[in-house]
Structures are given as structure tokens and as C-alpha cells.
Design a protein that fits this description.
By secondary structure, this protein is mainly α. The chain has a domain at 1-42. The chain is built from five helices and two strands, in the order ββααααα. It has a two-stranded antiparallel ribbon. The longest helix is centred in the middle third of the chain and has 13 residues, at 53-65. The two termini are 41 Å apart.
């Protein structure tokens, strides 16, 4: 295989039918663009969240849909900063009903089943087609 030259540049090396590419990524978007077929999507609470008119309109529609005040997005950073592990735990316990969960575990039943049996919960095994 060819030695990749400059570690700060986009390089391509060939070895038989395989191609190795190296890209220097400065952020998550650069990384996502470097990976074929990958899309990077995230929501952010920064000015970039409202970069285009469609972004602003979408935020306004969400505020209307959920009956939020006009300054909703301005209130989020201090609200998020005030959260603690205890308040998050309390909110999760008040909201999430563990009895309503369905866990799907995929793998070799001979290896996994003994571990699951120790939990004392009902287990349904579905064979692969």
C-alpha cells in the first residue's frame, strides 16, 4: 500500500481493489462530508440554528404548535445549565414506566439467555427466519 503523504490533506492510497482515503476533519460536518453516504444532522441552540429564513420559520411554527412563548429559545440555555443529575433522574422516574418497555436483544441465545434469565423478567425467543 502507498504511504499516505501529508496528514493534513486529503489523500488516497490504493491496495488491490481497495481504496483508503484520509481526510482532515475540523468538525463533525467535515467528518460527515468525508464519509460516503453519511449525513450529519443535529439540532443546536446557537445562532446557526436560525441561519436561514426556513430555519426561523420552522422555529416559529414549532413555538406555535407547542404553544411556547416568543422567547422560548432564549430561555433554553439557562434552563439546561440549571439541570442536575438529581433533577434529570427525578424527571425520568416520573415520566418513564419501565413496565412499558420492550427490550429487543439480538444474538446467540445460547450465550445471551443465561444472562437474561438472571433478570427475572418474561423472555420471548423469536427464531431468525
Amino acid at each position: 500500500m502507498t504511504q499516505l503523504a501529508d496528514p493534513n490533506a486529503q489523500d488516497t492510497a490504493w491496495s488491490g481493489p481497495f481504496c483508503v482515503e484520509r481526510h482532515l476533519a475540523h468538525d463533525a460536518d467535515d467528518q460527515a462530508r468525508a464519509i460516503a453516504g453519511w449525513t450529519q444532522e443535529y439540532d443546536q441552540l446557537t445562532p446557526g440554528r436560525f441561519e436561514g429564513a426556513d430555519d426561523v420559520l420552522g422555529a416559529m411554527m414549532n413555538m406555535d404548535l407547542f404553544a411556547r412563548p416568543d422567547n422560548y429559545y432564549e430561555t433554553l440555555p439557562p434552563r439546561y445549565r440549571s439541570l442536575t443529575a438529581a433533577t434529570l433522574d427525578q424527571a425520568a422516574r416520573a415520566t418513564i414506566d419501565p413496565k412499558g418497555f420492550t427490550w429487543v436483544v439480538v444474538g446467540d441465545a445460547a450465550n445471551i439467555r443465561p444472562q437474561l434469565d438472571k433478570l427475572g423478567i418474561p423472555i420471548e425467543v423469536v427464531e431468525a427466519p
